[in-house]
Amino acid sequence: MSTKTKLPTGQEAVAAKGWLGAHKWLILRRFSQSSFLFLFLMGPWLGIWWVTGTLAGSRTFGVLPLTDPFVLLQSMVAGHWPELTAIIGAGIVLAVYALVGGRVYCSWVCPINPVTDAAHWLHDRLGLPKGWQPKRSTRLWILGTVLVVTALTGAIAWEVVNPITMLHRGLVFGMGFAWALVGAVFLFDVVVARHGWCGHLCPVGAFYSLVGRKSLLRISASGRAACDDCMDCFAVCPENQVISPALRGKSGETPLILSPDCTNCGRCIDVCSVDVFAFTHRFDNHVKDTELVADKAA
Amino acid sequence: MLSPAPMSPARRRFLTDTARMAGGCAVAGLGLAYLVTDARALPAEALRPPGALPEGDFLAACIRCGLCVRDCPYNTLSLAELGFDGPATGTPFFTARDVPCEMCDDIPCIAACPTGALDPALTNIDDARIGTAVLVDQENCLNFLGLRCDVCYRVCPVIDEAISLELSHNDRSGHHAIFAPTVHADKCTGCGVCEKSCVLPEAAIKVLPVRLARGAAGEHYLKGWEEKDAKGAPLVEGIIDLPDRLPGPGTDNLAAPGGFEPAFKLPGASQ
Q: Which parts of the chain span the membrane according to its record (chain A) (predicted)?
């Protein structure tokens, strides 16, 4: 670790690349999240029905069906064989996330992400301890539990408590007490467990991570030779266990972040003042050598 | 036999962690199962859209997307909101007294459903069985009081089939008729227009879920008169048909004038 470790996260990057350059992916991500939400709100708010429905199932321009594959999987496990429309919709969604990374859903689409990001921001500002940190695999256990409960009760189980669809449906159709559930997730992430919900418990994220196991779009620490150990990427990454194998890899080891836990949020690219990280595809094992990086920096 | 070797710390940790995770998931799973089971309790006044599968199957099939709600041209349907409405969160329902189902010929809600939670096998809206109308309160129904309200009968989309007016004598006035609105469950779609239109402050006719509205005959029950008609002959061969003892003159029935005196009289009895 270098002395720079003590600086606030991203400060060097702001100095090196400007505020906009150091927040590019964050801004794009917020834009993406609000766009997806706005598409659904255009109907009820403006009467423009390009997209109808919710994240669980929707219809775009009257023809394109999209279905949440996790909800549909539960439906099948519960013993219902859905109509073709829903199956096609889920197939399209699965194909897209299998290509761009399953947890791209988490960081670029899911409406709970801004909530837990805000919780993390507050958590940092208050300087709270990280609190309860169950294993990352807990969410896979919960995913399994949800499927078992679905099979035993014969009803789609997670939708009874899923804060994602409840928040989204609440915004598009009417909130009821769903805000209390969202507030609970926020509070949980602030005071009980840092990155608790998205990082450890949410079975939807776990499901999408499995979908994106072999995804094409990946972040590579291709400039790892230039790393000055400021630790900002570890500080900003919501799943920072995924960084080490790529960043600290010895020569010959891939610089690609291949863990399915990576959400492709791109914050590591933002906060790195020496541009270690970049989006690329999973077959790009290229590592920039030190001299080249040094030349560029000079 | 080998003496048990001390367990390696790694193995011990693995087993402890697995047990802890499985135990935690069992607790969480029980809680979730309770909530899921609890969500099955559909309130009687909450009606599912036409073609909805039976409630148990519906909760396995409905992904709570809201497309049926959006495609309903009369804004009849809404999605249940957590804590405010009784049905399982996010599932579509309507309350007949607020907005009834208008029974569209093209059934757009079923066309919108991507999963088949609303069964596409229902193509004729007259075959829908959303619920069954029941005249729940004869004591307040204006027609039963002898007035000619008739509103539920008039508004019924299946008039004279699902609801008919059955005449009987009005004993109160002595010289009027009672036109009793009578629901015929085999034709009633449960659309709820009658309940919506009932002029009373609280409707006397209500659409109930079929499970509440209807009884059910035993599977082995046969109606003798129907069987007899179907056979075209008495069901038991060679039965002797004895004359019936009807009340009236020539019998020992005292209620009828001209009846015989009974052979034995109770002591102290006035008659």
A: 36-58, 78-100, 140-158, 170-192
